[in-house]
Write a structure and sequence with these properties.
The complex is a heterodimer of chains A (114) and B (111). With 114 residues, chain A is mainly β. Chain A contains no helices and 11 strands. In chain A, the strands form 2 sheets. In chain A, strands 2, 4, 5, 6, 9, 10 and 11 form a 7-stranded mixed β-sheet that branches. A 4-stranded antiparallel β-sheet of chain A has the order 1-3-8-7, with no helix packed on it. In chain A, β4 and β5 form a beta hairpin. Chain B has 111 residues and is mostly beta strands. Chain B contains no helices and 11 strands. The chains are: A mainly beta (114), B mainly beta (111). At the A-B interface, β5, β9 and β10 of A face β5 and β10 of B.
């Protein structure tokens, strides 16, 4: 696609439920990043994929968060047993090569846990 | 110490003036540096990248990098009200695996 695509744009879920957020990177981009952004803060790094593998998942806050990229393209961020503190905008970015090069963001998914 | 630090602002400049945004980083091994612009309610948009010491100019924007001082800056010449946004400094850390962002500086350009 022309740009990074994230779905859904908005997601409202009840506390304790499971959610999946999807990211479709720019075609041909091998590197993919997930971030979380709260109001007034910069994006917070969650996980970095190079191809199909998670090269760095040190930003995942706890074991309720998990991400996959089975075919090296689309990625899914999965959050189990959601908590109100998980409410934020979840951003995905991709870059053409391995880390170190320019990364481009999707429009984000606004997650609200009620 | 935060990995990437920025003054949160707001930085207020008159239309037509030069806006100067600053950023410091802690990982001395960092090699790639970026500035993103983020309008309220939108996602970050890449506006500049810089990899070598010195200045890099692109239109009204100039990025400056000083690796010895671990300092990156962004100058916006002839500031316009449409430049009003939050500017995010980003640095690759941890061996190129992690693109780390500062908290951003809010810029307000008033007519």
């Amino acid at each position: 696609g022309a740009g990074v695509s994230q779905t859904p744009s908005n997601k409202v879920t009840e506390k304790g439920k499971y959610v999946e957020l999807r990211c479709d990177p720019i075609s041909g981009h091998t590197a993919l990043y997930w971030y979380r952004q709260s109001l007034g803060q910069g994006p917070e790094f969650l996980i970095y994929f190079q191809g199909t593998g998670a090269a760095d998942d040190s930003g995942l806050p706890n074991d309720r968060f998990f991400a996959v990229r089975p075919e090296g393209s689309v990625s899914t961020l999965k959050i189990q047993r959601t908590e109100r503190g998980d409410s934020a905008v979840y951003l995905c970015a991709s870059s053409q090569e391995q880390g170190g090069t320019e990364a481009f963001f999707g429009q984000g998914t606004r997650l609200t846990v009620v | 110490q935060k990995e990437v630090e920025q003054n949160s602002g707001p930085l207020s400049v008159p239309e037509g003036a030069i806006a100067s945004l600053n950023c410091t980083y802690s990982d001395r091994g960092s090699q790639s540096f970026f500035w993103y612009r983020q309008y309220s309610g939108k996602s970050p948009e890449l506006i500049m990248s810089i990899y070598s010491n010195g200045d890099k100019e692109d239109g009204r924007f100039t990025a400056q990098l000083n690796k010895a001082s671990q300092y990156v800056s962004l100058l916006i010449r002839d500031s316009q009200p449409s430049d009003s946004a939050t500017y995010l400094c980003a640095v690759f850390s941890g061996g190129y695996n992690k693109l780390i962002f500062g908290a951003g500086t809010r810029l307000a350009v008033h007519p």
